[in-house]
Design a protein that fits this description.
This protein is an alpha+beta fold. The protein has helices at 7-14, 18-30; strands at 2-5, 40-42, 50-54, 57-64, 67-75. InterPro entries: RelE/ParE_toxin (IPR007712), RelE/ParE_toxin_dom_sf (IPR035093), TA_system_RelE_toxin (IPR052747).
Length: 83
């Protein structure tokens, strides 16, 4: 699958420390094999429709056709409040 990262997710990444950013980058690359990825949960009543858990961060994304659209990358304490 193709991966598209929205401006909001890029802005979120800029506020994350280097160690966590490296882990998140590796996780984003794994999303290219969606739906064969563990730690992915379909969300209800939220847009984007999926979340991938990596450490203390949540990658919120949606799948549109053959593209994984990453909407936000947030700390777990903020991930469902701001989306």
């Amino acid at each position: 699958m193709k991966i598209n990262i929205r401006k909001s997710a890029i802005s979120d990444l800029k506020n994350i420390d280097h160690k966590d950013r490296k882990r998140i980058h590796a996780t984003i690359l794994k999303l290219s094999t969606f739906p064969n990825v563990s730690n992915v949960k379909k969300l209800t009543d939220f847009e984007p429709a999926y979340r991938f858990r990596t450490g203390d961060y949540r990658i919120l994304f949606d799948v549109i056709g053959n593209t994984v659209e990453i909407g936000r990358i947030l700390h777990r304490k903020n991930s469902y409040r701001e989306s």
